Amino acid sequence: xxxxxxxxxxxxxxxxxxxxxxxxxxxxxxxxxxxxxxxxxxxxxxxxxxxxxxxxxxxxxxxxxxxxxxxxxxxxxxxxxxxxxxxxxxxxxxxxxxxxxxxxxxxxxxxxxxxxxxxxxxxxxxxxxxxxxxxxxxxxxxxxxxxxxxxxxxxxxxxxxxxxxxxxxxxxxxxxxxxxxxxxxxxxxxxxxxxxxxxxxxxxxxxxxxxxxxxxxxxxxxxxx
Length: 225
Known about the structure:
Number of helices: 9
Helix content: 55-70%
Structural class: mainly alpha
Mean pLDDT: 83
């Protein structure tokens, strides 16, 4: 149990770091976008050009909000601040309280696992649709993803592949996630966070089960060094 709790704590720290970084980037992007829009009202032509190059900002801020929401939900389960009905645990004796905690945590883990699976399949289904801006006409007159197009076809079409996205896309393919656009790829945060919450609830269920069997309260995870 000690190693599971340490892993859980490390996972929570990683989630908090990513959430904080995402928030800081969102603040920087939103502030830059707002400043440029104000400058366009002062007839700065370069501000208009800069805004055109930040057409991705609105989509990024929307997806960033989604990321923050699910990181917050996952971290709330770590701190045990998620919504819970705790009338019975408050009235029950300590050992029965651990049994209730084990049952409830197991049910929550199974629920989060299946929600993760449903959203995973949903994202994969959305990824099947390749928009025109991410497709190119192949040698046999079929539309192929720009990341899969040979260099010669891209050169003949006057296009270039988005290197960063294509690299991320290749990495995600290892897990069976063949993403069509960056927006779809960012939606993977939903099944990922549900899976993290499933693992976290499962670890709580195991700890509570061990406490019930041994009739000893579980050690305070936060009290460990």
